[in-house]
Here is the input.
Amino acid sequence: MKLTNDVELVDGLPVAYIKSLDSIVLSDIHLGYEGVMAKKGMLFPKVNLNNVIKVVGSALEATGAGRIIVDGDIKNEFSKVDLEEFNELYDFATFVNGTGAQLTLIKGNHDNFVDRYSGPLKFSVFRQEAALGKYFFFHGEELPKKIAKETKMMIMGHEHPAIGIGRMIGKREKLRCFLYGKYMNFKLLVLPAVGYFSSGTEINMSEREDLLSPVFSRVNINEMRAIVCDYGETMDFGRIGALRKVV
Here is the structure.
């Protein structure tokens, strides 16, 4: 699905492709999640890494992109790089390097201490935000600071957006989605989480104050469009304000 002449959403995947940057963009993959949670007594099947590789591999096949931009939260633990996280980061970087694509990380709030591995694992790191071409990337746990004057679109993650549907029939589905709207005078694209267990926040069933990112205190959420990327399809479900009324 095309958003602009330069940006498209890869069909059925929580991934955007930017033609002028020859890059696929994704966010919130949370490598090492199962291992970190196991140490806290919560057991999950080890499926996240394989799912991430499958998503990235499919997006590369569909686009032929030469770069992968992870817009924050490549790992899960806040305070350190857990052994499980390092192992999965190594496996993911090895996979990416094997495709010939370049890996770029814009650090998120979960990505403390990951810089030290960028050299050996051959990926580049930006701290919190980066201006690349006409695009301004930031994770979203903080308000953006130095927006380049060339910026046409801002791209963030962090919120793990989703919509909830089906409340009136007694069963509710949560569908991951992109959010597309405006921040000040810029186009704003909010990426869904790629992490298998990061199912997201139902934006159409949440109050503004319940959302994670301070960006949403300066955005008209009801005017943002929810573009669902679940069950192998990408579909525009319309504005959040309208979805609040019908689901």
About this structure: The chain has one domain: 7-246.
